[in-house]
Amino acid sequence: MNMSDTQQMSEVGTQDWAGWRRAKRAELLARRASLSPADHAERSERVLLRLEALALPPAAVVGFYWPFRAEIDVMPFIERLREQGRAAALPRVVGKGEPLEFRLWEPGVPMDRGVFGIPFPRKRRL
Prior knowledge:
It is built from four helices and five strands. The chain has helices at residues 3-12, 17-33, 37-52, 75-83; strands at residues 61-63, 87-92, 101-105, 111-113, 119-121.
């Protein structure tokens, strides 16, 4: 978030916070969708390099999101973590206003589809 976003949020106040969020989300989705494949790949690589630089504890369970709508694909990072013996978990949307429920993920685990058709592990274990 940059300074103009912070200023805009202050000006919005509580009156139309949800509307501001919807508009900002639409703007950011459109901006991401307008990236050329080369720009998307370059930006994704920068994010992956930053993730690789994290000092994660050996027993870390890392939550991640399944790539959706041209989001960055973090699967190469997750695969490396799993090769190092760390666990990975995907979120499941339980309900509106509810916290996400993270479920252990590994290659080949049976998956179901949730909100927007986004996959999550069928078994509830972590």
